[in-house]
Automatic annotation (TrEMBL):
InterPro entries (UniProt xref): 4Fe4S_Fe-S-bd, 4Fe4S_Fe_S_CS, AKR2_Oxidoreductase, NAD(P)_OxRdtase_dom_sf, NADP_OxRdtase_dom
One Pfam family here: Aldo_ket_red
Annotated protein name in UniProt: 4Fe-4S ferredoxin-type domain-containing protein
Domain 4Fe-4S ferredoxin-type stretches: 203-235
Length: 249
């Protein structure tokens, strides 16, 4: 490996961390500027999950790119961040175009984002077929149909803003509770047949861990979306017990 195209400072969600990176005396940027001058790094970027933090990062004029969540559920960047990136000539890398796996209709998710031609989407890929589907979307019409718009609005209403994006900043849990998976359970119930989550051997084990929560609240202090994680874990556990009881009759 001769060089890295882009090096990103990852998960910078507060001013204190940004100041440490940019400190003129012993900031991390000094090391990476040397690497850039030596041709080892071509561009320097930064990633974040906090709107106030990423806007401050853009305004420094130092970073060439920012990476931030953007999809038709988490759509605030359209008005708050993209215009700022254009003003400061900062590239926008779009993480979580599928809302961390919460959106299943790739066509609806991508066609919403196609209206912003100056972003670079980086969806998570698990299968070759997913790559083929995305390529076909780029090659086809970028216009949303009436049915797709209606589906988008329906999903917006269903999900709201109170859902886990699976960034996993809340982990690790000192009780080894799989927080992100537990928080995703209500979406399993909405989108999957009962046999999937009632007979899947991972789910009961996950629920057994849920009751080990000691209510320390550490996970909530680390969540960039300020979710009431402890409450949502209880809701997932209670929903599982309800579904299990209903389908055992």
């Amino acid at each position: 490996l001769d060089y890295i195209d882009i090096y990103q400072f990852h998960g910078v969600n507060d001013q204190e961390t940004l100041d440490k990176i940019l400190d003129p005396e012993d900031g991390l940027k000094n090391t990476f500027e040397k690497a850039k001058k030596a041709g080892k790094i071509r561009h320097i970027g930064i990633t974040s999950h906090k709107m106030d933090a990423v806007k401050a990062q853009v305004k420094t004029g130092y970073f060439e790119t920012v990476m931030f969540p953007f999809n038709f559920i988490t759509c605030e960047p359209a008005d708050e961040l993209l215009p700022l990136c254009r003003e400061y000539d900062v590239g926008f890398i779009n993480m979580k175009p599928m809302a961390g796996g919460m959106l299943e209709d790739t066509s609806v998710a991508f066609k919403y984002l196609f209206q912003f031609p100056d972003i670079a989407m980086i969806p998570g890929i698990e299968k070759v077929s997913e790559i083929e589907e995305i390529v076909s979307l780029y090659e086809g019409s970028h216009e949303m149909t009436t049915a797709e718009i209606e589906k988008m609005e329906q999903l917006r209403e269903e999900l709201g803003t109170r859902f886990c994006r699976r960034c996993e900043y809340c982990q690790p849990c000192q009780q080894e509770i799989p927080i992100a998976m537990l928080m995703a359970f209500p979406s399993f119930v909405k989108r999957l047949p009962p046999d999937w989550y009632l007979k899947n051997p991972r789910i009961p084990g996950m629920m057994e861990k849920a009751v080990e929560c000691i209510e320390c609240g550490e996970c909530e202090t680390k969540c960039p979306y300020n979710l009431p994680i402890r409450e949502m874990i209880k809701e997932s556990y209670n929903l599982f017990q309800e579904m299990k009881a209903n389908h055992s009759k």
